[in-house]
């Protein structure tokens, strides 16, 4: 087997492991590596080669979600008006927060602090991009900044798992209504 084929297989295995771990986190705070490996169709050795610890895997899932969330801001603005872009982005925040909740429940404090350090700046920058576009269009309040929205979004972490579906997206609609300009 050539090295290029192995690298391709390894890349596919890593991506599949991350996707399966993300799905587990959305379902439950109980993340078992053997169950992730089984569902991903890889052996435990393959999983541990890519992620030597549970925390390493969970941190990678979280980092990937942050990167996708941040990248979505400019992509959404390219396709939608600022209000619609913010609404779509806040929907993504709900998905991101659901995984974040699982990650934080499953990792130690030191790991969670590292995870936060990776996400705070980029998420704030994405929000600033969305808010500035909305302000320039006259759709968003001038007195709202990214920190305000981050603080409101943080309340998603207070939701119990059994109330997530009923409350998470409606809460983001309240946030969107709060940033909109009223004449």
Contiguous low-pLDDT stretches (5 residues minimum) are none
- Tell me the strand percentage band: under 5%
> What's the pLDDT, averaged over the residues?
85
Decide which structural class fits the backbone: mainly alpha
- What proportion of the residues is helical, as a percent range? over 70%
Number of helices: 8
How many β-strands, per DSSP?
A: 0
Radius of gyration based on Cα positions: 18 Å
Distance between the termini: 67 Å
Morphology call: elongated
Which sheet architecture does the biggest sheet show? none
List the helices and strands in order.
HHHHHHHH
Give a short overview.
With 183 residues, the chain is mostly helical. It is built from eight helices and no strands.
Q: Can you describe this structure?
A:
The chain is mainly alpha-helical. Helices cover 78% and strands 0% of the residues. The protein contains 8 helices and no strands. Helix 4 runs antiparallel to helix 5 (82-106). The longest helix has 28 residues, at 109-136. The mean pLDDT is 85.
Indicate the topology:
Blueprint lengths: L2 H25 L5 H8 L3 H7 L3 H26 L2 H25 L2 H28 L9 H8 L10 H16 L4
What features would you highlight for this structure?
183 residues; mainly alpha; elongated
């Amino acid at each position: 087997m050539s090295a290029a084929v192995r690298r391709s297989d390894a890349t596919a295995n890593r991506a599949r492991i991350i996707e399966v771990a993300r799905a587990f986190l959305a379902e439950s705070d109980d993340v078992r590596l053997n169950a992730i490996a089984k569902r991903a169709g890889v052996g435990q050795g393959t999983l541990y080669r890519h992620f030597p610890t549970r925390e390493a895997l969970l941190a990678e899932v979280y980092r990937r979600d942050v990167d996708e969330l941040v990248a979505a801001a400019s992509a959404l603005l390219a396709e939608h008006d600022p209000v619609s872009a913010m609404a779509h982005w806040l929907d993504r925040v709900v998905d991101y927060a659901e995984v974040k909740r699982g990650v934080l429940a499953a990792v130690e404090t030191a790991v969670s602090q590292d995870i936060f350090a990776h996400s705070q700046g980029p998420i704030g920058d994405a929000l600033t991009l969305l808010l500035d576009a909305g302000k320039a269009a006259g759709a968003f309040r001038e007195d709202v900044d990214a920190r305000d929205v981050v603080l409101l979004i943080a309340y998603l972490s207070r939701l119990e798992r059994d109330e997530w579906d009923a409350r998470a997206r409606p809460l983001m609609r309240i946030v969107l209504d709060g940033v909109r300009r009223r004449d």
